[in-house]
Design a protein that fits this description.
Elements: H1 3-6, E1 12-13, H2 21-36, H3 40-53, E2 57-59, E3 62-63, E4 66-69, E5 76-86, E6 96-105, H4 109-124, H5 126-133, H6 138-147
Helix pairs in contact: 2-3
């Protein structure tokens, strides 16, 4: 599975404005709800629950919020680039401006972990992140995220 299999172009947000971590997660949940058919409050609650375990802010301005839902049957992703970074309680205490949301079925053990690892590898590439930060166009962001793939997710 490629990133393009879980991230549709319409789930790439080139200029998402959010004033806080909570507002950011709410905005992402709303987009994910449209993609998955799951109520946005259920998605938001799953994301908040995961954040209570520890921030998904992985450092260098990047966050990978994720969670599992019982009422979906495949992986779904949403990517957002913020024009102004928000505090996210990241491990390096830097605010985040690149966010890659991943939702998985509750039964997706290995697939979920493989997708997280793939997303993490992609966003560890400083050149990719610089190019993502340099674009305000959803199509260009989508191309960077999907064509930079080194290997399939699963």
């Amino acid at each position: 599975m490629e990133i393009a299999d879980i991230l549709p172009l319409k789930a790439v947000l080139a200029n998402l404005k959010a004033g806080s971590k909570k507002q950011l997660l709410q905005e992402l949940a709303a987009v994910a709800a449209h993609e998955t058919g799951v109520h946005e409050r259920a998605i938001f609650d799953v994301l908040l629950e995961r954040e209570r375990l520890g921030s998904t802010g992985v450092g260098k301005g990047i966050a990978i919020p994720h969670g599992k839902l019982c009422n979906i049957d495949q992986l779904y992703a949403v990517f957002a680039k913020l024009p102004a970074a928000v505090e996210f309680e990241a491990i390096d205490e830097r605010p985040v401006d690149l966010i890659f949301l991943l939702l998985a079925p509750e039964t997706a053990g290995a697939d979920h972990l493989k997708a997280l690892a793939r997303i993490s590898r992609l966003l560890r590439n400083e050149d990719v992140c610089a190019r993502l930060r340099g674009s305000d166009n959803a199509e260009a962001l989508y191309a960077l995220l999907t064509q930079t793939a080194e290997a399939p997710i699963a």
